[in-house]
Amino acid sequence: MAATPVVELKQITKRFPGIVANDSISIKLQKGEIHALLGENGAGKSTLMNILFGLYQPDEGHIEVNGEAVAIDSPNKAIELGIGMVHQHFKLVQSFSVTENIILGMEPSKGGIQIDYKTATEKVKKLSDQYGFRIDPNAKIEDISVGMQQRVEILKTLYRGADILIFDEPTAVLTPQEISELIEIMRKLVAEGKSIILITHKLKEIMSVSDTVTIIRRGKVIDTVKTNETSPFELAEKMVGRNVSFKVDKKPAEPGEKVIEVKDVSVKNKEGITLLDGMTFDVRRGEIVGVAGVDGNGQTQIIEALSGLRKIDSGSIVLNGKEIGNHTPRQISESGVGHIPEDRHKHGLVLDFSVSENMVLESYYKEPYTKRGFLNFRAINDLAKRLVEAFDVRTPSIQTKARSLSGGNQQKAIIAREINKNPDFLIAAQPTRGLDVGAIEFVQTQLIQQRDQGKAVLLVSFELDEILNVSDRIIVVYEGKVIGEVRPEETNDQELGLMMAGSRQGGTKA
Amino acid sequence: MNKFLKWFASDSFIVSLAAIVMGLLLGAVVMMIGGYNPITAYGALISRVFGDWYGFGEALREMTPLVLTGLAVAFAFRAGMFNIGAEGQVLMGMTGASLIGIKITGLPALIHAPLAIIAGALFGGLWAALAGYIKAKRGVNEVITTIMLNWTALFLCNYIVRTFLLMPGNQRSVDIQPSASISIDWLSQMMGNARVHWGILLAMLASTFFYYFLWKTKQGFELRAVGSNPEAARYAGINVSKNIVKAMFISGVFAGLAGAFETLGVFHYQSVYSSLPGYGFNGIAVALLGMTHPFGVLAGAGLFGSLTYGSAGMSFDAGVPPEIIQIVIGSIIFFIAAQGIVRFILKPVYKRKKEKVL
Description:
The complex is a heterodimer of chains A (510) and B (358). By secondary structure, chain A is α/β, with parallel strands linked by helices. In chain A, 32% of the residues lie in helices and 26% in strands. In chain A, the strands form 6 sheets. In chain A, strands 6-9-10-3-11-12 form a 6-stranded mixed beta sheet, with helices on both faces. A 6-stranded mixed beta sheet of chain A has the order 18-21-22-15-23-24, with helices on both faces. In chain A, a hairpin with a 2-residue loop joins strand 23 and strand 24. Helices cover 78% and strands 0% of the residues of chain B. Chain B is globular. Mean pLDDT of chain B is 90; it is low at 354-358.
């Protein structure tokens, strides 16, 4: 007989208008285990965790903590019961110190008025040392790395006495090195008797860190398995409900002439800080060039420069033999550049527009979508219907607001629009961020198809696996410069990781 | 037709209607606390507006500038901006219309009146475009600039009237030429000399224009994109700065028309104002009442106009201070803005409706 689970969810059902988000889900979390929750976007993982954290109430079923039935009606109640959540998007005050952020909302005080920073700092320091966080309690949040900020989030839950930690997609924003450090921390936490629920759709992490995996598909538990008795292939199949190939099939590239040539491009921001420092690279017809680098090393700026959203201070950008540096976004778009933007909510879509309006976001002014100044809704809707079908965008109707689509379908809609432009040069920035395995496969296949049709594709991604799998050539950027170029078949993520950290060893061609 | 009926059953229509009813009820409660009979009061209000042709005509006159300033605020809002400056744009519109209406002579009415209207529209439009330009070029928030421009407009317009158009010994301009008048004299006579004018019709056309322009044309598509996500609009190749100026210009044209119609259709002269007359601020309320939809603005202006105009009847015939109507209007706006409260109260109604469907 197993010991009493620390948390047991019993037949949790949660309905939203039109869908059953959780359909009689039961999960047992044992003390000292890392229990992974695996599922596609919209499978119901977040709903389930929001129920456990007291943000939603289940329609049916109940929760037991240490064998006792409890009603978790608010996050405060959850914290009281020792449940802590490490959110995907950090909830930290940038200008506050680590300690200030941790005690926010439950400040220890001297005599009820003055905040007792000394005691708080000591307590934070002690916790940090206990779990090997190596964090400076007095550092400002804005001065520390994303990985460190995440540790602050973890410390916040520990400070509040959490024994059960929920990690929501914790690795989405981390570099490979930071990921392995996080995994170390998670191991240390369970060794100290904490229990962890890990929400993720990344199979690699599940295999390396978890003890048990529960797979959820369309609101139902498909299976709960021991990690050491399963394989990534089996997990993926269970998650998506069909066979998934990890290695995207592709023929070797047959690069043709140069489509885009970036030469010595430099960009400074308003404060005069150099963001791009003489960046130089090219992309040829029929090849995918992957850009690897830690976030903030010029990726965003080079994409903005290439698509006309940012002025360049010097250098040149040549597309098909013509200079396009500092042209307007529309001129660049019309000269044959497609752009799947990094932030689909900020740039890719007008969320309050319908799917159909979003499909013509860049072509609305052309015939046949506009005739004599008036929008031609018949032509627009025809196009939208065609694209929605061809790219399998799942939407109730083409008149549905883009806001109500899931992330994966929003991304498909953007990709449909960009590919439909039939560009010579396609920029794909973080095209699979936040997507599940099925959607990732779709997006990557589309990119490779574009390549096979003789397009030049630039892929910017923080997912090293994606860079390694999809690209034909990889350039590594560091501090606004290209510091190395490697072939995916001649390198691995460790070597890339080192290069991304600024080391020039490895496969650099000088 | 079917579409029309569906609109009446739509959620936003029911919620607005409920908000109005709740506002009227709250006003009634306030009247009862003050010792007045709300039924007599509202009865007097209604009979003032609908009791005779004169009252009805005057209520229409009251509504006209409200429709246009409401459209002005709503249009800017759809393009992502808050135009607090309809006030100043109305004054500029008045001045533009007065200048043409007074100084130009010898034109036939068919040319003179439209010319004066266009001048008013342009004055209003350019005044608003100035705020748009400052926002587009320098990033200065339009709320601040339009408020400042209200006062600039007040003193500039007063200066123009005093210097170029003054009727000696009065705090007003001389009368406009008869050829610039847009009053409908025959209808006015039929309605007991109510000051009805062509501007009423043009205001309705303006709201139709608003609808078609924003939702059916290419330029409207750009404005809406800029309004709901300027970053995405820029990414899509839309010139955001140009659209900000354009949206403010059109917004100002609506307000300018309101001013022009007041001068050309109602007063036939322009006063020297000692403070801001309030057309533009009421426009904000109307735009909120109409949920920034052009046809909603039309309805909102109808309500706002009837209530303000009818409140005079309330005080004459029922002895209720007309200020109470400000409480009613205020609470209607409150309930429309705080839709959650209305939906909460309507909840039992909705539940029953759903059960019926099942």
